[in-house]
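Recall the central idea of this unit: under ordinary conditions, the amino acid sequence of a chain determines the structure it adopts. In this exercise we apply that idea directly, starting from the sequence alone.
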Amino acid sequence: MRPLPIFALTLAMLLWSSSFIALKHVLEVWSFGQVLFMRMLVAACCWLLCYRWLGDFHYQKGDWRWLALMGALEPCLYFLLEVNALRYTSAGQAGMVCALLPLMVALVAFVLLKERVSRRQLLGFGIAIFGIALLGLGGEADEFAANALLGNSLEMGAMLCAATYSVVFKKLSSRYGVMTLTALQAFVGTLFFAPFAFSSPWPADWAWQDMAVILFLGAFVTLGAYLLYNWSVTQVKVTLAAAYVNLIPVFTLLLAYMLLGETLNALQWVACAAVLAGIGVGQLPVRRPQGAVVTTDP
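Accordingly, the structure predicted from this sequence is:
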């Protein structure tokens, strides 16, 4: 595997991990609709400045269903679920739930692309789900996680959206440019979240530190991380790119500890180990009997 896609995927995971900490901060200042609208607006403005590099958009007949599904999944449903998840669970726990993405991608690829799912993957998925439930039930409500079970369930829904999005994007990237598709997401998200943003009063005081966080979320996370990940998906298998999501729990737990002071109790650390064990079981290569002939579908 070439080093550039590896670097791009790792940097994208670091940026996505930092977004959990950034969102926890700005959600104390603005409503979730205002945060998402400003985040998408910043990304859209950045794309307008880079319009010369977007290339032409040549629509192909029948693709409106896939394009609409891509936009509905991310940024609309994904961010709606994730930002509300962070209202109830901690940044560290949300990052841990993200580790489910590789297994969910395999399940979605089975449904949409008819790719095979092994029993080992199903077993690993079941173990990971058990770990996430234990993670939510194992901690008491505190300032970081008012209702961890609800928040982690919402984050799991966000991961299902992300898994389906990865497969849909892989399909569309054979017809349209990566930058064009990523820019389209920013504009769709701006329009979608505008009604949420203006349905509640805006705060009177805007601190520059809070605005800096919004600019970071819009320019570096929404635009930068998605562009890095989406480009990487065109260079490697979608399941391999999704496997790098396993870095998010590690990065998020470290950042949440250093920047927010979040901690986990002993039972929750056991739950984290169960999640990672389930993911490890699900991603182990399938052993074939000696002398077996590997065939591919035509």
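Residues 13 and 247 are 6 Å apart (CA to CA).
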